[in-house]
Amino acid sequence: MVLGLRNFSERTGDGVGEPVLDTVNGEELMHVQPGVAIVLGNGAPESPGTLFISTKRVMWLSDVEKERGYVVDFLSVSLHAVSTDPEAYSSPCIYAQIETEAVRDDESEASDSENNETLDVSKITEMRLVPSDASQLDALFNVFCECAELNPEPVEEQEEEHNWIFSADQMVDEGGLPVKYGQSLIQSTFPVRGDSEWHFSESLGNPIGYSNGDHELSRSVIEVCLLLYLLCI
Fold first, then answer.
1. Is residue 138 part of a domain?
2. DSSP letters along 31-100, please?
3. Which strands make up the sheet holding 6-7, listed edge to edge?
4. Bigger pLDDT: 226 or 26?
5. Is the pLDDT confidence value at 83 over 70?
6. Which InterPro entries does its entry note (predicted)?
7. What whole-number distance in Å separates Cα of residue 185 and Cα of residue 177?
8. At 14, which CATH number?
9. Where are the alpha helices (DSSP H) in 125-214?
């Protein structure tokens, strides 16, 4: 579930200290950067605050309004980069794109939301973090990269409709010979009739059945080939 950007004001020390971390689930504070302004969407920079980067989240807390702050999980940050091009933004900053499940009809609706006094942060898809000291950008970027690596995108498990697992005994060709590495699994499992126009290469760079990690793609290709083969019989 994508949570996107959220309002956040939970602080330690009677609401004047650092952000409250989810220590029960192993969250640890990695970096603290004072003097950072935040820009949400196309809005104006907010008053400087303090940036907190943990092993799971990016948190910004205002130094002026103690009840004002924002948080986003690293799992919701789809891109982050150092921006120093004045044509992209007037000040050097960390630019981040945020995934959100909020449904918007068009870009004007998003712009209206950003310009309202009551900002709907769930619709914000871009964020800029502008440190007062631009020399800290590389350090901030490196921390972003390190923490992003700690939060890989979870792999969604889908229910398998077919069990496409072949034992060593099944990996044989029509003559009963073992299938050579690089030979198409479709060719060996579903023999092609002599009058068929199908041609399979035995020197495929990434043959079907020897996926480099995209198992769903391999399974889908096998299912399509099986269907076409059955239609040709």
1. yes
2. EEEEEEEEEETTSPPPPPEEEEEESSEEEEEESS-TT-EEEEEGGGEEEEEEE--TTT-SS-EEEEEE--
3. 6-7, 69-73, 57-62, 49-54, 29-40, 126-131, 93-98, 77-83
4. 26
5. yes
6. ICln, ICln/Lot5/Saf5, PH-like_dom_sf
7. 13
8. 2.30.29.30
9. 137-149, 185-189
Percent of the chain whose pLDDT exceeds 90: 52
* pLDDT value of residue 15: 72
Provide the token pair at 105.
């009809």
Helices (H) and strands (E) in the chain, counts: 5, 8
Give the span between the Cα atoms of 213 and 216, in whole angstroms: 9
Tell me what pLDDT residue 119 has. Answer: 77
Q: Is 165 helix (H, G, I), strand (E, B) or coil?
A: coil
Handedness of CA 129, 130, 131, 134 (dihedral sign): positive
**CA–CA distance, 72 with 60 (Å, rounded to integer):** 9
Q: How far is CA 102 from CA 68, 125, 214, in A?
A: 22, 10, 29
- Three-class SS state of 24: helix
Burial of residue 64 (CB within 10 Å: 0-12, 13-18, 19+) is exposed
Contact between residue 156 and residue 211 where contact means Cβ atoms under 8 Å apart: no
| Domain annotation covers residue 156 | no
User: If you search the block for the tokens 């449904």, which residue do you land on?
Assistant: 103
Q: Are residues 77 and 181 in the same domain?
A: no
